[in-house]
């Protein structure tokens, strides 16, 4: 069995389980967070789709908590799909796992082998390539928040080295087919502008997010290129936008936007963090 060990436990989030649970709770209750903890006993069904950042919890955790509070309104999902960028460019253009588990300090999360097989067969673009994700954090950092809400669940990791519009639309179409008729969660893992002054980052990211809210994939890529927006997971966002459109979603809702400067006080070179859900 393939076991994916955590690579940023003790760096992006605490390695101790109790400290990690506390860090997650503090993200919800942070002044930049939603100000409430997830409820229990929710009954909503269907697909829930969103965008979450993936930096260290001290920086982006409160913004991510807005999306996760919203996700907590869904009954325990049959499947969680997380689409993230491949920061290191290792392995194939689009990769997943054929089987195995991902470990976090809160336990193991099993890969849904049937869903992975279905996506590979539907698209013809996805490789079984666990090595491509061995150093990657963009998918990993979402798991402890989800474990805090749901405990055990099955998931499908999709990691993108290729982030062009054609790849995003093809993978998005495949994911929509995989999720059709399921109670499921779909997450695009991405930060936005990197290492620019806060005012510049906010101006660029605000324009880009207008296209996310409209589920306008073509406009999203046009603005990305014209404004030189350095969003690391732009293909992940576009993939989830395309899948969401095909699943019947009509628009996105921006719950929170903040930058690393909002937590550190240093606005000279920030990273932008979005929380968007689709409805």
Describe this structure in words.
- The protein has a single domain (7-36, 48-278), classed as Protocatechuate 4,5-dioxygenase, Chain B (3-Layer(aba) Sandwich).
- The protein has 9 helices and 12 strands.
- It has helices at 17-29, 57-71, 113-123, 143-150, 165-179, 198-213, 217-226, 234-246, 261-264; strands at residues 3-4, 47-52, 79-85, 94-96, 101-104, 107-110, 127-128, 155-160, 184-189, 194-196, 252-259, 270-278.
- Strands 2, 3, 4, 7, 8, 9, 10, 11 and 12 form a 9-stranded mixed sheet that branches. It has a 3-stranded mixed sheet with strand order 1-5-6.
Brief characterization of the structure:
The chain has helices spanning 17-29, 57-71, 113-123, 143-150, 165-179, 198-213, 217-226, 234-246, 261-264; strands spanning 3-4, 47-52, 79-85, 94-96, 101-104, 107-110, 127-128, 155-160, 184-189, 194-196, 252-259, 270-278. The mean pLDDT is 96.
Shape: globular
Which fold name corresponds to the CATH topology?
A: Protocatechuate 4,5-dioxygenase, Chain B
Mean pLDDT: 96
Low-confidence stretches: none
The count of strands amounts to 12
CATH class: Alpha Beta
Indicate the proportion of strand residues: 15-25%
Termini separation = 37 Å
| Number of DSSP helical runs | 9
Specify the CATH homologous superfamily.
LigB-like
Q: What is the count of distinct domains?
A: 1
